[in-house]
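If you are new to this repository, start here. Below is one unmodified record pulled from the training split, so you can see the exact layout before writing a loader.
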Amino acid sequence: MFADIRGSTALAERMGPRDFAGLLDKFYAIASKALIDHKGVVDKMIGDEVMALFIPSHVGGDLGEASMNAARAILKGAAKENIPVGVGLHRGQAYVGKVGTENTGDFTAVGDTVNTTARLQAQAKAGEVVMSEAIYGSIAAYYPGLEARTIEVKGREQPVEIRVLRSPGSL
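And here is the target side for that same chain:
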């Protein structure tokens, strides 16, 4: 999962650094709580974005359901604080472990699945969850009839089939 504040450059310009930092703190608190409550693992907070993992052995249930519930909780909490957030969800295999050098490194997830998820999040407008069919297939019974689209994803040869959940009525 990637969750990102939409229009953050303009927000930062209007708000000033101290107020924008406060907005980021609110967003991080909302996202962290939602992710922890739904057994997600916060990988990192990157500027105005949160990257999270849903690891099968940690979730203990359906990854699609857990990630969607976390995404919905993030959007709901962000909406209460008037923070415009878009979320991208995808599932698949990734390398999860340390990357870097002997002296510096980072524990993270990398690979096509992660890159695709970031690209899906980039497609999400404020109040939307943009998910791949890989996620939607496991939760379609709970969210029938979500808008389907095919999108071109930068860096990928094949287009990606997606579904879009919009708030507030969908939450």
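Two things worth knowing about this chain: The beta strands are 2-5, 41-46, 49-53, 85-89, 95-100, 105-110, 128-132, 147-151, 160-166. The CA atoms of residues 20 and 53 lie 26 Å apart.
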